[in-house]
Design goal:
With about 325 residues, this protein is α/β, with parallel strands linked by helices. The chain has one domain: Aldolase class I (TIM Barrel, Alpha-Beta Barrel), CATH 3.20.20.70. The protein has 12 helices and 8 strands. Helix 6 runs parallel beside helix 7 and helix 9 runs antiparallel to helix 10. The model has no long low-confidence stretch (mean pLDDT about 100).
Length: about 325
């Protein structure tokens, strides 16, 4: 691993917040609110970096120009020492290559390659390898894999395919979002045997405590864009082996994680994240791009109650 790759890997340790993209009522990006959101989250003590253009950032409904602008604003408004990782998500490998090169040029320190949503219906393993290879060959920054939830069909990489992906030295880390403890541990152990230097970020927001107990270098999670201090508290306590304090932090976080992420479909999480930020007075408009409808009354009630349990409302 090169010195640059090693520095990137070292900086991945700890908590990284996956951020949202504020919209105006007519669904345009609200750049002023986005800048404020990025600056506020990134300046929280213990937040070591940001994941922008992730699922929480509605990467599948933003144009390339918009994604590039998100990276530029993150680079401008986050602290200078904040690690900026941008997601790359496109159904076409050719467009994903364009996107990856543009986001690197815009200032991303690293890129996280998301599996195209169509892969949930099935894919050939060689197709997955080719997609990642093309992005690798078009970029120079460190690259990350995404381990999708086990409920996302074939988007979740089986061990033989994960083995092939991890073998590429340009990929140095994985956002491990299997969202199921047995699959998480299986992937953690497999990767540890293949490449002990490969960074595994346990990023299932509903089971962070369990991931930290089993083993994790940190997390890239959208829960940290709503309650960054609480997620940092959980991580710091777990790192210190203070499991009583960790459990106390988990008890505050768990109802909120359930209210945001538990009920399908997965795309509702972004709507609920934005609703939380509006309830907390940090966002004037919680619109998400169509076709996602606004949060329902039931969702808002559950989120408000969970925010109160967390002690932030």
């Amino acid at each position: 691993m090169s010195a640059g790759m090693r520095r990137f890997s070292d900086r991945l340790r700890g908590i990284h917040a996956a951020t949202i993209v504020p919209m105006t009522p007519d669904f345009a990006i609200d750049e002023a609110q986005l800048a404020a959101h990025l600056a506020s989250v990134a300046s929280t003590p213990g937040i070591n970096g940001l994941l922008v253009n992730g699922h929480a950032g509605e990467n599948f409904v933003l144009s390339l120009a918009e994604k590039r602008r998100v990276v530029e604003l993150a680079r401008r408004h986050a602290p200078k020492d904040c690690l900026i990782v941008s997601g790359v998500n496109h159904e076409s490998s050719l467009e994903a290559v364009r996107e990856a090169a543009a986001l690197e040029q815009a200032g991303a320190d690293g890129l996280l390659v998301f599996p195209p949503n169509s892969w949930a219906l099935g894919h050939a393993d060689d197709c997955v390898i080719e997609h990642h290879r093309r992005i690798r060959d078009a970029t120079t920054v460190p690259l990350m894999l995404y381990a999708a939830p086990v409920g996302a069909g074939a988007m979740a990489y089986a061990p033989p395919l994960l083995t092939r992906l991890v073998a590429d030295p340009r990929f140095v880390a994985v956002k491990e979002g299997s969202w199921e403890v047995a699959a998480y541990e299986q992937n953690l152990r497999l990767i540890g045997k293949l490449r002990p230097d490969f960074v595994v970020l346990g990023s299932g927001d509903e089971h962070l405590l369990t991931s930290y107990l089993i083993g994790s270098a940190g997390s890239q999670v959208s829960l940290a864009c709503v309650v960054p201090e609480l997620v940092v508290d959980l991580w710091v306590a777990a790192e210190a082996g203070d499991w009583e304090r960790s459990r106390a932090a988990h008890e505050k976080l768990y109802p909120l994680a359930v209210a945001i992420y538990r009920d399908p479909p997965g795309g509702r999480a972004t709507v609920r994240l934005k609703a939380c930020l509006k309830l907390l007075g940090r966002l004037p408009c919680d619109s998400a791009r169509p076709p996602q409808p606004a949060a329902t009354r039931g969702e808002l009630q559950a989120l408000e109650q969970a925010l109160r349990v967390a002690g932030v409302l």
